Amino acid sequence: MDEYKEIGMDFKILNDFMTHLTVKVGKYGKLKYGDKLSKELDTINQIRSDLEEKMFKEYPKDANTKVFYGEGPDITNLLEEYYEIPNE
C-alpha cells in the first residue's frame, strides 16, 4: 500500500505539471503541441486510473481515491462569495 501512496503522489505532481504545461503551450498559439500534450495527459490519467483500480483490488480495506487524486478542494469560501449560504 505504501508503494501505491508514493506512486499516487508522483501522479498528482505529474498531472499538475502536465496540465500547467499543456495550458501554457496552448496559450501561446502552439495549439498543435498543446493538443499533443493533452493527449499524453489523457494517457497518463488512464494509467493512473488503472493503477487505482488495481490498488482497490489488492487492498480493498485500505484503498481510497485520495491516494491517486488527493482530496477535493474545499470550495465553501468560494461559494460564500457568490451565494448566500444559510447558517444551520
Structure report:
The chain is an all-alpha fold. The protein has helices spanning 2-27, 31-58, 66-69, 76-82. It has one domain. The chain has four helices and no strands.
Q: On the 0-100 scale, what is the average pLDDT?
A: 82
Largest sheet: none
Structural class: mainly alpha
How many strands appear in the DSSP assignment?
Answer: 0
Compressed to H and E, one letter per element, the order equals: HHHH
Task: Give the termini distance in whole angstroms.
Answer: 39 Å
- Gyration radius (Cα, Å) is 17 Å
Fraction of residues in β-strands: under 5%
Total domains, how many? 1
Q: Summarize this, please?
A:
This protein is mainly alpha-helical and 88 residues long. It is 74% helix and 0% strand.
